[in-house]
Design a protein that fits this description.
Layout lengths: L13 H27 L2 H4 L4 E6 L4 E4 L5 E4 L1 H10 L7 E5 L1 H10 L4 E5 L3 H6 L9 E8 L4 H89 L3 H31 L1 H4 L5 H87 L8 H8 L2 E8 L5 H24 L5 H5 L4 H29 L8 H26 L2 H16 L13 H4 L4 H14 L3 H38 L4
Parallel strand pairs: 1-4, 1-5, 6-7
Antiparallel strand pairs: 2-3, 5-6
Helix pairs in contact: 1-15, 6-9, 7-9, 11-13, 11-14, 11-15, 11-17, 13-14, 13-18, 14-15, 14-17, 14-18, 17-18
Length: about 600
Amino acid sequence: MIPHDIPAAPRPPRRWARVLAIVAAAAVPLAFAGLTMAALSDAGTGVDRIPAAIVNEDEMVTQTAEDGTETVILAGRLLVTELTGTDSPGMDWQLSNAEEAAAKLAAGEVYAVLTIPSDFSASVVSLQSTEPVQAQLELETDDAHSYLAGSVAQSLGDGMVRAFGSELTKQYIAGIYTQFGSVGEAFGQAADGAEQLADGATQAAAGAQQFAEGLDQYTNGVSRLSSGLQTMRQQTAGLGDLGAGIQGYAGGVSQMSGGLTALAQNMAADPRFTSDPTLAPYLANLQQLSGGLAQLAGNGSALAAGAGSLGQLSSGIAQTASGAAQLASNGAALDSGARELADGTAQLATGASELATGLREGADRLGGGGETPSTDAAEVAADPVGLEVTTRNAVTQLGQIIGTYFVPLGLWAGALAIFLVLPRLSRRVLASTAGSGRVIGSEGVRAGAVAVIQAVLLVLLLHVAAGVSWALLPATLGFALVAALAFTAFHQLLTVGLGRAGLVISLLLLAVQLASVGGVLPSQALAGPFTWLGQVMPLGWATTGLQQIVAGGDTGLAVGSALGLAAFGLLSVLLSRVVIRRARRASVMRMLLPAS
């Protein structure tokens, strides 16, 4: 007999629960399609929210123009400004340094790292030199966090490189045409100078011709001079003997003068001559004649000395005649050389005229464009900026990409299937004297055994069909077992607390998680709350952890995901125990109520 003071347990509103379950079941397809569409509705513009780092290691370059003005080139800074600007399409680029960017990429805080090398500006400036170098950019991604993020980053990088390179090509071509104009002007000036050179060469040719003609006359005159000097030499050959004759003549006159002087003195001393007045005039004439002879003798000595130098004159005339003869003999060669000089100067005038004509034609052609640059310069101009893509933990096989996403999905669906086929806890079990932990444990062991089989099969499929390395088997199997048991414990909680309706809730939660898990597309590209829902839901943890294992990514993230799943499973078991206690109490109360 049960005391009347025991309150009767209220009957659950089964009708409303059944209606809600039917409505939820009807909404499952809508939830799958609607939530997925809602999550991806902003994917087009959501790419702008995908975080990426940019590392600018570019060094400043100073360019000196022809007029001496200096221009500072900072191509790397221009690229950073373009990428980080508010109107810049693409990913959410954040300026960083190399170490910080590498750490963020490994942790999944950014999905790509763009590095601008130190020689970027120098390579850009080299486009205007004779040895152009392609400017290189380095893009690094990591498949361990998102498979499509790397592809998106590479596509954006290619587009960015093409856009930036096109701008450089425009500047390069504009510079070429500017240089063509400058070269054309220089060619025009050179043509003017060549024309002046041609005019001067023509005048020089005329002067050389006149010089050759004058030299011809000169050589003829030298020949005649040589002939005249030779005749003079022959005629003056006896001038040396004339001096000796004059010297003898002067000696004779001197002796005659001395004799007359002595005679005059003797006559002046003889009284016979002095007493005769008629002899006085003769004596005076004799003395005068003696003085004149003495003077003549003195002049004869001087004349003899002068006549002696006539021999030297004759010798000089002989030397002059010899030199004139030699000069006359070389005159023919000199005349021939002058003729050749005149001819060469005429040819120089002709060549200078042709040079002026060619330079003028070149200047005219450069005025309308020039020839194609060299092959290397053309290749660099066509593709001035290159992009080198490096992918960390690269996953190249599509099966592995799909496997890391669908293995957790399969484990969730497997847990749901387990509790579809396992019988519900009967009233007899709930009313038994067994402890709540034992009741939960007995059902959990049966469900867990099936979940282990499911995990083993999925892991084998991942290694056999997707080609995942067998060296990763301990990690993949261990992680899959943790995820399978956690999902099984959660579904046990749903069925214990909500019955069959709990499985419908599982489907709805699966739809939410499928729409928000960022294993393939980065979560930042999703719309609204889906950007963070995947980070707090168990399917997201399972996908992240398995990605890190298969791609060889961050071990810490994989371990953290496993610990999160284990805690989620343990919490589900504890909540199931609490729920089963309340259910057993309510079941007992319903069994006792009719007897009251």
